[in-house]
Design brief:
Layout: E1 2-3, E2 38-44, H1 54-75, H2 77-81, E3 84-86, E4 91-96, H3 98-105, E5 110-115, E6 118-121, E7 125-129, E8 141-146, H4 147-151, H5 154-159, E9 168-173, E10 187-192, H6 207-216, E11 219-224, E12 227-232, E13 240-245, E14 252-254, H7 255-267, E15 272-275, E16 281-292, E17 297-304, E18 315-326, E19 328-329, E20 332-333, E21 340-346, E22 350-351, E23 355-356, E24 368-374, H8 375-378, E25 384-392, E26 398-411, H9 416-426, E27 430-434, E28 456-461, E29 488-491, E30 495-499, E31 503-507, H10 510-527, H11 533-542, H12 570-576, E32 590-597, E33 606-615, E34 620-621, E35 626-633, E36 639-646, E37 652-658, E38 666-674, E39 677-685, E40 704-708, E41 713-719, E42 732-737, E43 742-748, E44 754-760, E45 773-777, E46 780-787, E47 794-798, E48 801-803, E49 809-817, E50 829-838, H13 848-855, H14 862-869, E51 875-883, E52 887-893, E53 900-906, E54 921-925, H15 940-945, E55 949-958, E56 961-964, E57 969-972, E58 975-985, E59 992-994, E60 999-1004, E61 1007-1012, E62 1018-1024, E63 1031-1047, E64 1064-1078, E65 1084-1093, ...
Parallel strand pairs: 8-12, 9-13, 9-15, 10-13, 15-27, 27-28, 28-29, 40-46, 48-54, 74-81, 83-89, 91-97, 98-108, 99-109
Antiparallel strand pairs: 1-6, 2-4, 2-5, 3-4, 6-14, 7-31, 8-64, 11-12, 16-26, 17-25, 18-24, 18-26, 19-20, 21-22, 21-25, 23-24, 30-31, 32-33, 33-34, 33-37, 35-36, 35-38, 38-39, 41-44, 42-43, 42-45, 45-46, 47-49, 49-52, 50-51, 50-53, 53-54, 55-58, 56-57, 58-59, 58-62, 60-61, 60-63, 63-64, 65-66, ...
Helix pairs in contact: 6-10, 7-9, 10-12, 11-12, 17-19
Length: 1756
């Protein structure tokens, strides 16, 4: 909406400076013209009759204007020459001086002359933002919808196939940015009446583009920080647009140009004109930014006249307003108006009659004081000089932002602008016009041309509510013949729309409401093109949500000057005119999945890009699509590698990209793009050398943070570890200091690895507000010390939102404790309470005798008006609440006529900075009537959530791993399995159905697998993950999932200047898919703390590999009293050395919260935290039971028992019991404006109308009884109407003294169900085996199945003649019974004890091809036919899981693999173990050993875990020497099914020798220096009678070579060196003499030919040893390895010289970075071999360079 005004000093206090009465409406004091002339509009007497056609209008104007122009020419030819002619209103625009225009006004045929007023846009752009990027791995169709479109039910019209297509909307404004993506190609016409630039549609202001977007903005894809989302902006997103630019870049323009734009719109076939351009006349005197000293008075005067026009009253005086605004500092008011007085005087120094403006509700500001004097109350003394007098009655100077006095005039509906708009209706064009933004000063503020009687004048409703926005102008129009304006209302606060240059903006104003109505008109015309403008207006008004003057909805059509006919409903208007035709076509939904597959550990130089193209509408992959891939580094100056792939039949495309050229230790970025969808990611390319300074410091310890009393002492204990993880024993220096003072500095000796220091601060002058002190050990940071000068508490009010009818009382609790309960203390203190109660928001919410007269423009008695308006500003209430033992309860009584109150709790000791802690603010609604949605269609969140959705979820995956203690990490298995589930959720009922027969595709970078879901909707995949540390998978199936919700912020638009922070509706429609990064099982480490009684606690630490292997650990442990996120000193400290499990019993010395913490040592020398637990000393708990069913209106006592860990009762503990709204977490506000909360209502989220806060103290037995007052039947109905179920939430807190027993939680603790009648409520339960056996006869027996019934209702069940039916279904088998006894409330009765027998086929098990176990269900239903009335039937069913399985018999032969012939029997044990979950029946096993027949052995029945052993000892001989033993249990599975038969058969081989086993061990990690030789002895250990041998030595020929092999202890050798280049040599001997002992059989001569860092394995293969009789001697060979290190080559140049000495010295002093521990560079430099780079290494290298050391750095 535009008008003749500007904002003078506050947006809530609008006054305009006018130059003179003739130039009314020129805000800047200029109307275009020369020094002597001004522009005027000459309106002729002969105006078109109603019903005149377009051609007749033009002809009539031409005919009548000719004679008038001739007369004007005779008076002033220059004026005639300047004339511009209009036809839509019979008028001329001329430029003339004052005398000329006075003569023109008297000409025959001239009705009147009026100034060509300049209008000014006054709807500010509150937010402008660019888009932001997103990163994600799927491109689902996510959407955003501005809230106002759903509020007027537009989406329901779109769903009926009507989006405004074929209708043309003209936006007469600042222009339209035709390039904005919101408009596509739909801007089909444009005319520039300001700059004459008609080359393309443009907007150099933004107002017009915003309005065009609100009317007809289409779908755009915007990039937010949550991803790419679709955003529909306009009410009629497929309507055509034309734009008439009539306002300049500053939003200013002449009325004559606006009329030209309207004429152009008609000539260009506009069906609807949206006109957010108008004027309202002010004449003002103001003073800005000044101060008044104590006792000083400001006087502002204004000359006030009568009507403005030449012939008659066109601009009628409405009121004089005077006021001031105080300056603001730091976001809140620094001064208060209490010591200021203000008086408005009419002419002759008469006190004006009127009242203070205090009806603006949420927009009311205590800084702004305004007094309004209506014309009707002062008409007898109007013309003359008015005076505003403001006096400072205080003792200090007051700073003002401004003060002003102004006269307001309103058109009577007969200006040229008004006539222009009225004539549009005769041409069949619907005109939609803004009412104006002056409603904050009350009635009579409709702007021109909203004053035109025949147009649709639109006011604005507030954010997410049907209350009038405080700025929205109010009628009536025309004092002589008053008529009601506005006609309609539409949302006008927090409106998101398009803005030039591809941006988006949020604006407030009736300008924003107007295009929303224009778009609705387009929908009506698109659905029914026969509608006339009168029919459109009438229908819109009849179908609107009718609103009373007090803002509440009413059923009947009754117009008023605040809301007209009410707020529009797009859906009802289009429906009433038969405009709902069919439905929209189903969307063609496609998605792109994928991203990079990158394993830096395996191949840091290769990235595999994956893209999967999917058609969700068809439920199938898309073949033949090109996916573009991009990989680049240097984000701001990128270097790209591009590739592409074409999708195959599975929709899959890949590309392998070499990134060798990319820098290491830097991020690189990837993109996969298809059809405008881009998936972005970033990865880190690591360095092969790693990082760090290469130095390992000992001792190892963990930092601790302490808090100490400034006048006391604390004890610190640090457990210290040595380099090997053992307890450290050397002395250390512990120091506590800051930059100026040392508080402790001593050398300490560890005791069992722990050092202890007590630091006394009482001897020092501690600045508790200063920086923390630093704790160091040997100069390394070991922690900090802060001082306990204050405790920070967090307050929480409950309920956060509630409903309390006017005149009623509600309890609001304030809980104050340390954050999250950690630290365990609470407070007792008085808190201030400030309540702002909004009693009215509308000026016409007055007594009928006052409001009606004022609305009609009649005189109102001054005293009556002041009395009536006196209570309309927000009522401020001040009080206190006493918080005792953590809880205070404030009893708040809702004032009469109050519709909302904001209750704020404030710590009186904290300084106020203009906003409140939202956690300590509660919003109480008097009624939800003004906030409930007045609509006939579901909201978008409701309708989207009502759609059926298919979901694909990864139920479970298994990727086994084993623990490697040597490598100190888990080793993943080569295969993994993944189970997926497909379900469909019914959007109406919420019923979940398993989807059988669905094809599921699983995509990885390696390929694609397909599977089909079974009857339970699941399918399982097996993946090859060999050599991988993780695996990214994408699973897709046919189906679409949908969801929608509301956000209280707009994504991607972080800066807002609106009077509110608007939210948005958002959601998605996307393919049924699941994305997951699979990772192998890994080790588990955790801590447990268990109370042992008598004040003792057991702290246990566990560390196990993924295969349950206990891990060997070294580490540290501390346990300390905990306070305010720090510890009060270390009470317990230990070093750790354990395997798998460690435990320590601690007995704390003080009460409070303790923190136990443990860390274990990593190979790189770091300590990794593996367990932390908090426990209270003494421990305490609160126990209670709440009835599950409660009768409406019933009082239910609940007993709470508070006891310590030893079971001793705790008296005087305070219990808080919060129910309903008080138990729920909800949004709140940080000031008095509750409007940002309103968007939750679109998701049907309202406060619970039931709220109860109960508190009490325990007695000597530790008990407190609090009584629930259940909601009444009427309150229950209100809860249901607001979307609540019969489940009532509750939450419990408990405080003992100043300690927390049970802290406040964000979620409620439980619920009880409301019952409307005294009825039973049956709940079944089952006791039965969870694991049952599939027997060999295919039977499945569930034995000892017990069924119980619990009555948790509100009445006893008394058996008469109606038995309770109980039905148990197992598979396809039903077992029913009846119970014919009484079941009192709260009691449980046994209804059935039976054995149920079914068969495998009943469970869908095919025993010829089965896989066990199979999960089945026992489905138990009580009262299945509902023959007995109950409170609730939803809990009559229970599903009891049963796993059908079989035994697992494992065969085992226990025998030594090698024996020495001795003549005695070798023990041979045959063992069968049942590893299954069920018992096995008796069976047999077949045993076979070399040289004997098969023996059948009986095996008895075995229970779970039981074993059966049979001994078959046998004397074994060296001839034949090798024996094969075989054992098979349950052959062919004849006696039992089994979960697997893989372990039923086992084979063992035993070797019998004459001699014991020998051994050969090659060295591991042997260091070889390049360029040297090395002699490697081959030693046979423990040889007995060795005579002959042969063996092959293997090596890496690129690292070493063998120059020869020399003989050893057993004689001459035969050596074959022919294969040295291939990496092996063969050698051996053959002789009759025998040798025994540890024998060096040969020496291998090695020449080191490789380079530093090379490695080689050293091995022996084909090793054979024999005695002189050629009997073989067994041997065990251990292979070795060697690494090549050029010791001393610190700079890596391949030689050792003085440069290496210098390099080490530079590293030691920090001029060069040290190599990373474990790297080749480090090992070659650390010649001292002490795991550190230091001066000693430089010294050794220098010694080597002068010949004092050999290449291995041994002393020569």
């Amino acid at each position: 909406m535009t008008r003749v005004c500007t904002r003078s000093f506050l947006t809530v206090f609008i006054l305009l400076v006018l130059v003179g009465s003739v130039a009314a409406g020129a805000p800047d004091g200029s109307v275009v013209g020369t020094d002597d002339t001004m522009p005027y509009i000459v309106v002729l007497t002969d105006q078109p009759d109603r019903g005149t056609t377009y051609s007749m209008m033009k002809a009539q104007a031409a005919a009548t204007q000719a004679s008038v122009l001739s007369s004007i020419s005779a008076i002033d030819s220059d004026a005639a020459q300047s004339a511009e002619q209009f036809w839509i209103v019979n008028a001329l625009r001329v430029e003339a001086d004052k005398s000329t225009i006075e003569r023109i006004a008297l000409l025959p045929g001239v009705d009147h002359v009026e100034p060509d007023m300049r209008v000014q846009v006054d709807d500010p752009v509150f937010e402008v933002s660019d888009t932001v990027d997103a990163q994600y791995m799927r491109s689902g169709d996510e959407f955003m919808l501005p809230w106002h479109l759903d509020w007027i039910e537009t989406p329901a019209v779109w769903d009926a196939g009507n989006m405004g297509e074929g209708v043309r909307i003209s936006v007469v404004d600042t222009g339209i940015d035709g390039t904005h993506p919101a408009f596509g190609e739909r801007v089909v016409g444009f005319a520039d009446f300001v700059n004459g630039d008609n080359t393309s549609a443009y907007d150099d202001n933004g107002h017009g583009t915003h309005c065009a977007g609100t009317a007809a903005g289409g779908e755009v894809m915007v990039s937010t920080y949550d991803g790419i989302q679709a955003l529909i902006l306009g009410t009629a997103p497929e309507a055509e647009l034309i734009g008439a630019k009539v306002l300049n870049s500053a939003g200013s323009g002449l009325t004559s140009d606006i009329i030209k734009g309207i004429e152009w719109s008609v000539e260009n076939d506009a069906d609807v004109i949206s006109l957010s351009v108008g004027s309202y006349a002010w004449d003002a005197n103001k003073q800005e930014y000044f101060s008044l000293a104590a006792g000083e008075t400001l006087n502002l005067t204004l000359e006030v006249g009568g009507n403005i026009a030449s012939n008659g009253g066109l601009l009628e005086p409405q009121f004089v307003v005077g006021g001031y605004a105080l300056q603001q500092e730091y976001g809140y008011n620094d001064a208060e108006p209490a010591n200021l007085s203000m008086t408005l005087y009419a002419p002759n120094n008469v006190t004006a009659t009127g009242g203070y403006i205090d009806w603006n509700g949420f927009d009311q500001s205590s800084d702004v004081v305004k007094f309004k004097a209506p014309y009707a109350s002062n008409s007898g003394n109007w013309n003359g000089v008015w005076l505003l007098q403001v006096t400072n009655n205080g003792n200090e100077s007051v700073m003002f932002e401004g003060a002003a006095i102004a006269e307001a005039r309103q058109s009577d509906g007969n200006t040229a602008y008004d006539l222009t708009l009225n004539n549009l209706a005769d041409l069949g064009v619907v005109a939609v016009v803004a009412a104006g933004n002056n409603g904050d000063v009350g009635t009579g503020t409709i702007g021109t041309p909203g004053t035109a009687e025949d147009v649709i004048t639109v006011g604005a409703t507030d954010y997410c509510m049907d209350y009038r926005a405080s700025f929205s102008s109010i009628g009536p129009v025309n004092r002589t013949n008053p008529y009601i304006k506005p006609d309609l209302m539409a949302p006008g606060v927090g409106i998101l729309s398009a803005y030039p240059n591809g941006q988006y903006a949020v604006m407030d104003g009736t300008s924003m409401a107007t295009p929303g109505v224009a778009g609705t008109v387009a929908l009506m015309l698109a659905g029914n093109d026969t509608l006339t403008p009168a029919q459109v207006k009438q229908t819109l008004m009849q179908t609107a949500v009718h609103i009373k003057e007090d803002g509440t909805a009413m059923a009947t059509y009754e117009e008023n000057n605040l809301y007209g006919a009410g707020r529009i409903s797009s859906y009802l208007a289009v429906e009433a005119t038969d405009g709902l035709h069919g439905t929209l076509p189903s969307p063609y939904l496609t998605e792109l999945f994928g991203g990079p597959s990158y394993d830096a550990d395996t191949d840091p130089n290769t990235v595999t890009m994956l893209g999967v193209c999917w058609n969700a509408t068809a439920g199938a992959p898309i073949e033949g699509e090109t996916v573009e891939f991009k990989v680049y580094y240097n984000y701001y100056n990128p270097v790209f590698i591009n590739a592409s792939g074409v999708t195959d039949a599975d929709g899959r495309a890949t590309a392998t990209i070499d990134i060798t050229s990319f820098p290491v230790n830097a991020y690189f970025y990837t993109e996969a793009t298809w059809q405008g969808r881009t998936l972005s990611s970033q990865k880190l390319k690591p360095s092969s050398e790693g990082g760090g300074n290469g130095y390992i410091y000992v001792p190892f310890f963990e930092s601790q943070s302490f808090i100490a009393p400034p006048d006391g002492a604390i004890t610190m204990r640090y457990p210290l570890l040595d380099v090997d993880g053992s307890a450290y024993s050397d002395t250390v220096q512990l120091k506590v200091a800051n930059s100026t003072t040392t508080f402790f500095d001593e050398t300490l000796t560890p005791v069992n690895g722990v050092v202890e220091a007590t630091v006394d601060f009482s001897k020092f002058n501690i600045n508790v507000y200063g920086s923390d002190l630093s704790v160091t050990i040997d100069g390394r940071r070991a922690g900090s010390v802060a001082f306990a000068y204050e405790v920070w508490y967090e307050g929480m009010s409950s309920p956060k939102q509630a409903i309390c009818p006017a005149g009623s009382t509600i309890d609001i609790a304030l809980q104050v404790a340390e954050p999250h309960g950690i630290g365990g203390t609470i407070t007792s203190k008085d808190y201030a309470v400030y309540v702002t109660a909004f009693t009215e928001t509308e000026i016409l919410s007055l007594p009928a005798e006052v409001g009606g007269a004022l609305a009609a423009g009649m005189p109102v008695d001054d005293a009556a008006l002041v009395e009536a308006t006196g209570g309309m500003e927000p009522e401020e209430i001040v009080g206190t609440v006493q918080v005792r033992n953590g809880i205070g309860v404030y009893q708040f009584t809702m004032p009469e006529d109050c519709y909302v109150a904001v209750v704020k709790f404030v710590d009186p000791d904290e300084e106020f900075y203009g906003s409140y802690d939202s956690y300590m603010v509660s919003v109480v609604y008097g009624s939800m009537s003004p906030w409930t949605l007045h609509r006939v269609t579901p909201t978008v969140p409701e309708s989207v959530e009502g759609l059926d959705s298919t979901y694909l979820v990864i139920m479970d995956y298994e990727w086994a791993a084993t623990w490697s203690q040597g490598d100190y990490h888990s080793v993943p298995a080569d295969t993994a399995s993944l189970t997926a589930s497909v379900i469909t959720v019914n959007g109406t009922t919420g019923e979940v159905t398993d989807d059988a027969g669905k094809t599921v595709r699983l995509y990885t970078a390696d390929g694609v697998q397909t599977n089909t879901t079974a009857a339970d909707g699941t399918c399982t995949f097996t993946l090859n993950v060999s050599g991988k540390a993780s695996e990214d998978v994408i699973l897709i199936t046919d189906g679409i999932s949908s969801s929608a919700w509301v956000l209280d912020y707009i994504q991607g638009y972080p800066v807002r200047f609106s009077r509110i922070d608007p939210g948005i509706i958002t959601g998605y429609q996307q393919t049924a898919a699941a994305l997951r990064c699979l990772e192998p099982a890994t080790e588990s480490r955790w801590m447990e703390v268990d109370y042992q009684g008598s004040g003792s606690y057991m702290v246990s630490l566990y560390s196990y590999g993924p295969d349950d292997t206990p891990i060997v650990e070294r580490g540290v442990f501390t346990a300390s009293p905990y306070f305010n996120w720090k510890t009060l000193g270390t009470e317990f400290a230990d070093t750790l050395a354990f395997t798998g499990t460690w435990a320590k019993n601690v007995t704390p010395s003080q009460n409070g919260t303790y923190e136990a913490h443990a860390s274990v040592l990593q190979p790189d020398g770091s300590l990794m935290g593996v367990g932390v637990s908090f426990f209270d000393v003494p421990g305490a708990c609160v126990s209670y039971t709440v009835k599950p069913d409660v009768l409406v209106g019933e009082t239910v006592p609940v007993t709470f028992t508070v006891a310590d860990s030893d079971g001793n009762p705790i008296s005087n503990a305070k219990v808080g019991f919060f129910l309903g709204a008080a138990a729920m977490d909800a949004s709140s506000t940080y000031n008095d404006d509750v409007r940002p909360l309103n968007i939750d209502h679109l998701a049907m989220e309202y406060p619970d109308p039931y709220s109860e806060v109960l508190t009490g103290y325990t007695d000597s037995s530790g008990r407190a009884t609090l009584t629930i007052h259940a909601p009444s039947a009427a309150l229950r109905e209100e809860r249901i109407m607001l979307g609540f179920s019969d489940n009532v939430p509750y939450k419990v807190v408990c405080y003992d003294g100043d300690e927390i027993v049970k802290s406040n939680s964000w979620y409620y603790d439980g619920t009880f169900r409301l019952a409307t009648a005294a009825l039973p409520d049956f709940v079944p339960s089952v006791s039965a085996p969870h694991v049952v056996k599939l027997n060999r006869d295919d039977s499945v027996k569930v034995n000892d199945l017990y069924l119980y019934i619990t009555n948790q209702g509100t009445a006893d069940f008394i058996y008469t003649d109606e038995e309770i039916v109980v039905r148990a279904a197992i598979g396809d088998k039903d077992q029913s019974t009846t119970y014919n006894g009484n079941i009192p409330m709260g009691e449980t009765k046994q209804a059935l004890h039976t054995n149920v027998e079914a068969y495998a086929s009943d469970y869908g098990i095919n025993t010829s091809d089965y896989h066990l176990p199979v999960d089945a269900k026992v489905n138990v239903t009580v009262n299945p036919d509902r023959t007995i009335d109950e409170i609730c039937y939803a809990n009559n069913n229970i599903v009891y899981p049963v796993r059908i399985t079989a035994p697992d018999l494992a065969a085992e032969i226990i025998v030594p693999p090698t024996v020495v012939q001795s003549g005695t029997a070798t023990p041979i044990a045959l063992v069968v173990t049942n590893q299954g979950e069920v018992a096995a029946v008796a069976t047999t096993m077949d045993y076979l050993i070399t040289g004997q027949a098969v023996e059948e052995i009986a095996v008895p029945a075995l229970g779970v875990g039981e074993s059966y052993t049979v001994w078959r000892n046998k004397t074994l001989l060296a001839d034949p020497g090798t024996y094969t033993l075989a054992l098979e249990v349950n052959p062919d599975g004849v006696t039992d099914y089994e979960t697997t038969f893989a372990n039923n058969r086992v084979t063992k081989t035993v070797h019998c020798y004459l001699h014991p086993t020998t051994s050969i061990e090659l060295p591991t990690d042997l260091v070889l220096v390049p360029g040297t030789t090395y002699d490697l002895p081959i030693v046979v250990g423990g040889a007995e009678n060795l005579a002959t041998f042969a063996m092959t030595f293997t090596f890496d020929p690129s690292a070493v070579t063998v120059t020869g092999v020399s003989a050893g202890d057993v004689g001459a050798l035969t050596v074959n060196l022919n294969h040295v280049d291939e990496g092996y040599v063969i050698f051996g001997n053959c002789q009759a003499e025998s040798f025994s002992g540890n024998l060096t059989v040969a020496t291998v001569h090695i020449s080191v030919i490789g380079s530093g860092g090379d490695e080689t394995a050293l091995g022996l293969v084909d090793v054979e040893l024999f005695d002189a009789d050629e009997y073989q001697i067994p041997v065990e060979v251990t292979d070795g390895s060697a690494v090549l290190l050029l010791y001393g080559d610190a700079n890596g140049d391949g030689s050792v010289n003085q440069a290496d000495t210098l390099r080490v010295l530079r590293e030691v002093v920090g001029l060069e970075s040290k190599p990373t521990v474990g790297t080749t560079s480090f090992l070659q430099t650390d010649v001292h071999e002490n795991r550190a780079i230091e001066v000693g290494d430089a010294m050794f290298i220098a010694q080597k360079n002068v010949g004092l050391r050999d290449p291995y750095f041994r002393i020569v």
